[in-house]
Amino acid sequence: MVSTLQDFIYDEARLIDSADYEAWLALFADDGRYWVPLKGQAQTEDERHNAIADESPLLLRLRVARLRGDRAHSQQQRSQCQHVLQSPRLLSSDAGVHTLHTPFTYAESRGEEMVVLHGHCVHRLRETPEGLRIALKRVNLVNAHARLPMIQLFP
Amino acid sequence: MSTPLSAASIRELVRADQVHKDLYLSPELFALEQREFFGNTWQYAGHVSQIPQALDYITVDIAGQSLLILRDNEGEVRALHNRCAHKGVRLYTAESGQLGARFLRCPYHAWSYRLDGALASYPLRAGYEGTGMCESANGQGLAPVSGLKVYRGFIFVRVNPEGPAFEDYFGEAVAALDQMVDRSPSGELVIEGGVLRNTIHCNWKFYLENINDTVHPVSTHESAVRAAQSQWTETDPNAPKPLAIEQILPFGQPYAFFEGMGGRVLPHGHSISGTRASVHSGYGELGDYVKALAAAHGEERAKAILEHSPQNVVLYPSLAVKGSPQTIRVIRPVAVDRTVIEAWNFRTLGGPDLLFDRALNYSRLVFSPMSIVAHDDIHLFEQQQQGLRSGPNDWVSLHRDFNSAELDTLPMDTNGSSELLIRNQYRAWAAHMTRRIA
Q1: Which one of B63, B293, B369, B430 has the minimum C-beta count within 10 Å?
Q2: What is the per-residue pLDDT across B218-254, written as a single tens digit (0 to 9) for each?
Q3: Measured between CB atoms, which of A36, A49, A65 is closest to B227?
Q4: Does B386 touch chain A (CB under 8 A)?
């Protein structure tokens, strides 16, 4: 089971890195959440604190629709990204919901620019009749508090 | 810049309807601008809710100088230069915190200061006897910042000793702060929810101009608006929209809408964009809060507070206020081609959570480093920074709706898409830049 969960996480990153966003979106549960908290790992889930990104599937679809369009000016030179993941650790499994912790580095290039981010992800994966789905992908940046440059894709 | 930076040469860079590219590109002009323009004018430093208790402090960089803003034992807000009088160490390096004691102490050689900045003690006192230290600038302690004003909780500073008083400088622009404070039935705002910060690779003026540029959304934000339209189908026009949809779709308003919003310019570069309406006008109902506000301020004032939601009020040059959603942006120049933008949100004490949620949502959607709205803005500002180097045209156009009558009329009302709001900034810029130099 652990290796199935780990493979899911590796594949998830690979879909982003290969710009296969539609397949990536399909991994999210209908009530799924992609979240980059502003306090990084210190932020609790019920806190009314802002986030760098806090996206429902609707907002993720909107983001992908923009990237696919021809008027996304910041994407005249398309951004490309690469995740490098450490082996995900299974933190807990309860009632068909698995929580995993995955340190990462993330590089995003646009023209001559390169943005490099570090941190770890917490995935909450839910077993469904259709297979595993992402209930939560939480991206804890080590410098979430910092004066960040624009991040165009999905750390 | 091949010519020396005399007052006359600086004034020549600002024409009635154009500005010279050096305003954005020249490192020499930026250095002078930090010292003169940002030093001579009033800058937003922070909000009292960031230092609620005695001995709380924040640090902030203004006009290229590190400042320490603290609350003393009597509850007074004080602003000091964050520079040890001895050898120049920046005393406090965290963005915010609690002073450990009733003295400020430099970790390097243990010089310590009272909370008003006066030098209190230093080791080996005898070694200074007969030297000129006590009489010199080094003996004077931490210099208080020349100008400090707390206006309804908003802390402003003016670094240089010369310059207009706070009231003369901002004039009726402070109504935007009143408007936001009065959204609380108890008259209290609290900064909450953290600060979103972006580093952008362009001159600060591109960002600030854009805050008053109502003509760009149609083309700049086409990608975000189209994407929102493609992903949202309204099934029931009376049902509340998701906040994100409510907030992104209005960016797609046509030119005529923005033109009709109305604008107003004030002395010293301040402006109101959206005197009659704005993209924020159509936000949904707030229920009982409306009654609470009427109880606190009276029906008429409550109605005025809720119905008046300009797109942006600029308290030139460091602060842009959105009364609804309750978000401010703070512009901090770092280098000629580097600027930090901060977005802070206010909770209205006595107001509904929805108001705060709107602020958090809006600033995340529009001002975050991951904002798909900001991505296109920032990309274009960064391309201005690059493109302006390409000659032979040295001038940026600010011609739209220029009328020579505006040159001696302030305040002045105009349409919502007039570049008068931007021209007015540069007229103030030239005046404050050259106030102290020949």
Answers
A1: B430
A2: 999 999 999 999 888 877 777 778 888 888 988 889 9
A3: A65
A4: no
- Using the beta-carbon criterion (under 8 Å), do A65 and B369 form an inter-chain contact? no
CB contact under 8 A, A39 and B194: yes
**Structural domains of chain A in order of their starting residue, each with its CATH number:** 2-69+79-141 (3.10.450.50)
- Separation of first and last alpha carbons in chain B: 17
* Omega before B325 within 30 of 0, i.e. cis: yes
What's the CA gap between B426 and B19, in Å, rounded? 8
| Dist. CA A94–CA B166, nearest whole Å | 60
Interface test with A, best of B370, B373, B377, B383 (most A CBs within 10 A): B370
Q: Tell me the chain B residues in contact with residue A62 when contact means C-beta distances shorter than 8 Å.
A: 224, 227-228, 230-231, 244, 248, 372
pTM strictly above 0.80 = yes
ipTM above 0.85? Answer: yes
A84 lies within 8 A of chain B by CB: no
Query: In CATH, what class is B171-433?
Result: alpha beta
Mutate to test the interface with A, among B246, B372, B383 (most CBs of A within 10 A): B372
Question: What is the domain partition of chain B in residue ranges?
Answer: 44-151, 171-433
Q: Which residue has the tokens 């704005």?
A: B278
Write the DSSP symbol of residue B392: S
Cβ contact B198:B366 at 8 Å: no
What architecture is the B44-151 domain classified under in CATH?
3-layer Sandwich (2.102)
Distance, in Å, from the CA atom of B151 to the CA atom of B174, rounded to the nearest integer, reads 8
B168-227 pLDDT, tens digit each: 999 999 999 999 999 999 999 999 999 999 999 999 999 999 999 999 999 999 999 999
Q: Omega into B411 within 30° of 0, i.e. cis?
A: yes
